[in-house]
Amino acid sequence: VHESLEHSAEEIKRLQRCINDLVSVLALPAMWAGREPSQVVSTLLDVLMGMLGLDLVYVRLNGSISEEPFEMARHAPFLNLAATPREIGQLLDRLLGQDPNSWPTLLRNRIGDGDISLVPLGMGLQGEIGMIAAGSQRADFPGQTERLVLSVAANQAVIGLQEARLLSEQKHVASELDRRVAERTKELAEAENNFRQIVNSIPGLVCTMNAAGEIQLLNRPLLEYFGKTAEEMKSWMNSGAVHPDDLPRVLAAFSHSVTTGTPYDIEHRCRRADGVYRWFQVRALPVRDADSRITGWYVLLIDIHDRKRAEEALRASECDLSSIINTIPMLAWSANPEGFCDFLNQRWLDFTGLSTEQARGWGWVATIHPDDAKGMLDSWQMGLVSGRIADVEVRMRRFDGVYRWFLLRASPLRDKSGKIIKWYGTNTDIDDRKRAEEELRRSEAFLAEGQRLSLSGSFLWRLDTDEITLSEQLYRTFEFDPHTPVTLERIGSRVHPEDIPLLTDKIEAARNGDSDLEYEIRLRMPNGSVKYLRTIAHGTRDRDGRPEIMGAVQDVTERRLSEEVLGNVRSELAHMTRVTSLGALTASIAHEINQPLSGIVTNASTCLRMLSADPPNVEGARETARRTIRDGNRASEVITRLRALFSKKDTAVEQVDLSEAAREVIALSLNDLKKNQVIVHAELAVDLPHVLGDRIQLQQVILNLLRNASDAMIGIDNRPRRLLIRTEREEGDSVRLTVRDTGVGIDPKNLDALFNAFYTTKNTGMGIGLSISRSIIESHHGHLWGAPNNGPGATFSFSIPRMSEGVTDTYNLGAIQAPAVTNGRKS
Amino acid sequence: MGGSHEEAVIIKRSLVTVVDDDESVRESLPDLLNEFGFATRAFSSAEEFLASDYVGQTKCLILDVAMSGMSGLDLQRELKLRHHEIPIVFITAHRDENLRPRVLEQGAIECLYKPFSDMALLDALNAALRGN
Lengths: 827, 132
Hints:
Helix content of chain A is 47%, strand content 24%. Chain A is of the alpha+beta class. Chain A is rod-shaped, with a radius of gyration of 75 Å.
């Protein structure tokens, strides 16, 4: 019992110690709180060495607790171990093997200088945390309690280490956090810097304001735009930054936004540094904190000047379009595909005086003249179906009830498939045109009537195509079928054969660009009658620049015929004058004949008497008979000359020597002149170029001039009655005849009247001499004139073109003297 | 030449003077007058006659009316002014019916229109000379 009691007391002490040890071990984690694992391990090793009286203790932590595997060892000095914890760990691994499950619970081995009993324990459930090995050279090691303390300590170490690890991890996280915060802070600083750069480099103008609307920050572009400092910009309201016209509106909007906290968005002009105002859109957004309180404003100014301009232009053009639609000088409208009118422009409404509501749909029909409405609607309905509305002309009622003519025109708008989606139409006021058309129709009718009455027609001849258009009257003149086209050949077939060369010549001239044509040709009609046509034409060009000849043709046949009659009358008159003027000469002519007759009678009487004498005077009779014959011949000569002058022969165109013609006239008039005591000087050129004409007519003119000169000198007694008659060649290929007297002269005022028919200064004359003389000379392409002399008297002259060499211009003279040519006359 | 003979004839016969500018008259009329038995002289102009010595001797003047220069009527007036009362027989080729009464009124014996017959001339001459 005693033994047992002793044993029990010892046992109790041992247990008591064990419990103390366990308590100490259990308190270890509290001690370890906040320590590093190495401190935990170190403490654990020290506690175990002391508590269990160990000679060697070794702890290894795998990477699960600390980042790196961790080994630590304590050993008693007597072992003389110079080994590092690592080398001890390697020795233990060799002794124990790798697998914790195969470890012996106790191992005795020599370590250093001692024999050591070694207990290996895994840390953690599977030894995953590490291992702990405790050794002592005591033989009874480990006792039961020691083993218990050891394993509890190992568990406590695990707890402590896990806590330490947690702590370490927490610390690590915290430092990571700090580091991250530091990094972030740095990033933020950089970001802010970037932000500043961005803000400064964005093309917009940016600034911030505080809640009260005071400017805080401004970006560089903003300052550069305004050309002001940040300080100056803070008083932007008064610094002229905003266009004065916009300022009141801007201030109102600004204060409204700042007061109410509503976003600010306004367009206004801002003054650039150089004084130019540009349009900006200025937007400000409030920045709010978590409690929705406004802490400030972000302000962005966007240059919208160009857009604004474009908008204005667009607005202007829209405005233009609208004003165009309403101001185009026509009534415009649109209708849906069914013809239901859905738009009418202002002009339409103004014209009709209807409102859009009244006119919409089919209301507009009321404005169409009742006589036109039916036809118009029929055409319109058909057009809606066929997709093609024909133009119609209708009368539309104006607001004041007056109807005016309009041209209605509509075009469909189609979609891609060709379906009509809209009709657009215009009504054009054509009232004036309509009236003008009517006028034109009337004046055309007048023209046609006028052409018919005046027998004038007009034609158009296109030179490039030879297309010829004749007026109605010309068809009648040419007696062409109005339905057959007219060609040059057809016209040629009507022209008198003798005039074909003339016409050909004129056509050629027209083709060669002669722009002014004036000629007269004859037509020979199918019934053999002759028409005289006078043509005046000129060249021009049509709108396309093609050459054409436009002309008027007048049928002058009547005039020609009356001219012919007039010519006959004139010819009669000329004859009469001739007879009259020569009639005045009759006495002198009779004298001229009576002289030789007298000689004849006297000589014959003498002759008879001589022959009847006893003895007959034969010699004397012979002489007187000879004189009788001579005088008879002289009388005959006179009569021949008179016959030439008196007989009204047809006009004969021949070469005339004016000197010779004058000489004959002088010879005939000499007695008459002598009777008036006129001294005649004749200066008649020899070798005078011939003229072409009617010798008798020209002689009549000469005779007339001589008689006038002679008559003018009757009653002149204070000076010689001189008459000079001269022929000469003139410059410019003419021949001139001049008769100069010393008579009463002529009053220059009466010069023109002198040539009027029936103007006379003489008591006996009829006053047609000079008039006829002039017409005769002019028919010879010459001219006749008179003038007072420097001294007493007057001079009358005429000049006629000399005959051009080799050419006998018979046609023209014939044309001018046609009446005489064609008029055969009974004498 | 035979001047004295002629002179004798003139004295014996009455001198009838012809003034006419027509040569054929001056040629033919003196021959006829000779046949009638007159002495004759012919002048081609009035001026020529007036300048000659025959004005006083002329018993009858046969005078052309129309002449260049001084006309027959002028000569008649001139002779009247000079108091030569010579009977004048006018001859003219102009059948101017007004002429005859006019010259007769002025004292002419006769006015003959050419051509005239020898008998008409002789009657006129006889009348002229009878008045002498």
